[in-house]
Amino acid sequence: MNRKDLDPDESPLAAFGSHLRRLRDERGWTQEELADRIGCSATHISAIETGRRMPTLRFASSADRAFGTGEQFQRRARAARNTPWLEGFPEFVAHEGKASEIRLFELGIVPGLLQTPEYAAAITTGAVRRGMITEQQAHDRTALVAQRQAALQRSPAPLIYAVLDESCLRRVVGGPEVMAGQLDRIATFAELPNTIFQVAPYDLGERRAFDLPVTLLTLPDRTHLCYAESAHQGSLERESRYVLPLLTAYHQLQAEALSQAASVAMIEQLRKGTP
């Protein structure tokens, strides 16, 4: 059976998963047996052991009871959760790197997959100044943006649909020079054969389908996933009864948004400094 091996030095999340697997192997327990002892599913155990899911403090406490390790797993869980990533985001990124289709909607800022290094650095610098993240966490964020973009340079390339709220283009991040480079990057993105770019204009009003950033993934087996987040919480949804209505809403958003030609024309106007 193929097993994904984690480097425990890679991150606190990887260290937690690696430690959980090592203790389970030492006791000769299967994932199903450990799941019964903890009170969850074997799939959940697998996701944590491979770093695809963040362990909750409740899970860590149950693991400590199952292994008789005092508060060892609870301390590791606190370290793992002290990261710049929201709940569900690490697992989402793992799926994103394999997806055959990516549909994203963003407002306020340009999404990570389209960001220039300078734009990404400006966003994280602002977060550090506000005390939201540390310098190390800022470094981790910008590094992950580059890794996510590199993961898309594969064959066959995924089909990427990007609908950006008009605010993403008009909000100046990092100053005029950084923003000019970012607009150039989006225009280049729109020219790729595997991309569709659209702007959801301000006058869409109540017809805009989403009020929060949303990303919908279609995996090679045609499974659909949805990742959505607010300022303090992320959520990865797999159940089709929740994901399929969001997919329908995304199609409706595309129908209401500007065409790609009109969207690129808006970028050209902004590059020239015209409203």
Automatic annotation (TrEMBL):
UniProt cross-references to Pfam families, sorted A to Z: DUF5753 (PF19054), HTH_31 (PF13560)
InterPro entries the UniProt entry points to: Cro/C1-type_HTH (IPR001387), DUF5753 (IPR043917), Lambda_DNA-bd_dom_sf (IPR010982)
Top-level taxonomic group: Bacteria
SMART domains, per database record: HTH_XRE
Positions of the HTH cro/C1-type domain: 20-73
Gene3D superfamilies: lambda repressor-like DNA-binding domains
GO molecular function: DNA binding
Protein name in UniProt: Helix-turn-helix domain-containing protein
Organism: Streptomyces alkaliterrae
